[in-house]
């Protein structure tokens, strides 16, 4: 009889130990998952803040271009003569200044380099392309071109997040590599249409990748042509 009681006591102790181990394991997992969720939340907030800076810069430049039109600039002349000279550049203070987007007498935008502290860590190579065409965005699509803000984006996740914020989808359309390089690296005149990015047609703001999906870029039409 005593032996039976001892065995039962040992069995109860073993069960209690196993239950304790399971409880500790569950608590450890819960804490780990919570920590991961908190870390993911902080990462997302940081990424969204950086994306917001890039989108805000594009919106600021767009507002400046439209203000230049309100001030009496002819659209066709603006497409041709828009200047990105910044403070310190040769000729920045040389009149006329009305076409200089970063001059107080032009667009009046405070210059922000992609590498500046207030800029986004996920975006580089800010540029304004004043002749490329995003098919379906402008009224002509042929004769004038669009004024387009461009920025290279550091990662696929940032590109997906930009599109989620702007268009509600994480899909990253593919732009043929030659067109991607021309628009985001060389800053040369290109036409983005159904032949090189069908998903870009009619879309004024979008983040895209190259064909190899190892480079990403964001464009925003500041003034459709």
Q: Could you characterize what this model shows?
A:
Helices cover 44% and strands 14% of the residues. With 225 residues, the protein is α+β, with helices and mostly antiparallel strands. Strand 5 (205-209) and strand 6 form a beta hairpin. The protein is elongated.
How would you describe this structure in keywords?
single chain, 225 residues, alpha+beta, four-stranded antiparallel sheet, two-stranded parallel ribbon, 4 helices, 6 strands, 44% helix
SSE blueprint and pairings:
Layout: H1 2-70, H2 75-81, E1 123-129, E2 133-134, E3 147-153, H3 156-167, H4 177-186, E4 191-192, E5 205-209, E6 216-223
Parallel strand pairs: 2-4
Antiparallel strand pairs: 1-3, 3-6, 5-6
The value of Rg in angstroms is 27 Å
Number of helices: 4
Structural class: alpha+beta
Percent of residues in helices comes to: 40-55%
Shape call: elongated
Strand order of the largest sheet: 1-3-6-5
Number of separate strands: 6
Mean pLDDT: 83
| Straight-line N-to-C gap | 97 Å
């Amino acid at each position: 009889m005593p032996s039976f009681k001892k065995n039962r006591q040992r069995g109860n102790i073993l069960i209690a130990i196993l239950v304790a181990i399971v409880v500790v394991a569950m608590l450890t997992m819960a804490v780990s998952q919570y920590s991961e969720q908190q870390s993911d939340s902080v990462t997302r907030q940081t990424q969204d803040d950086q994306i917001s800076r890039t989108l805000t810069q594009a919106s600021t430049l767009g507002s400046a271009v439209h203000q230049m039109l309100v001030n009496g600039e002819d659209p066709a002349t603006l497409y041709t003569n828009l200047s990105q000279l910044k403070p310190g550049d040769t000729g920045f203070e040389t009149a006329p200044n009305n076409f200089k987007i970063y001059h107080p007498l032009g667009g009046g935008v405070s210059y922000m380099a992609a590498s500046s502290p207030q800029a986004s860590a996920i975006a580089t190579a800010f540029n304004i392309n004043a002749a490329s065409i995003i098919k379906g965005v402008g009224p002509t699509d042929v004769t004038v071109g669009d004024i387009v803000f461009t920025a290279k984006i550091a990662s696929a996740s940032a590109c997906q997040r930009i599109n989620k914020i702007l268009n509600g989808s994480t899909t990253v359309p593919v732009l043929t590599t030659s067109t991607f390089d021309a628009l985001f690296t060389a800053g040369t005149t290109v036409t983005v249409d159904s032949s090189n990015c069908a998903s870009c047609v009619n879309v004024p703001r979008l983040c895209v990748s190259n064909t190899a999906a190892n480079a990403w870029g964001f464009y925003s039409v500041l003034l459709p042509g």
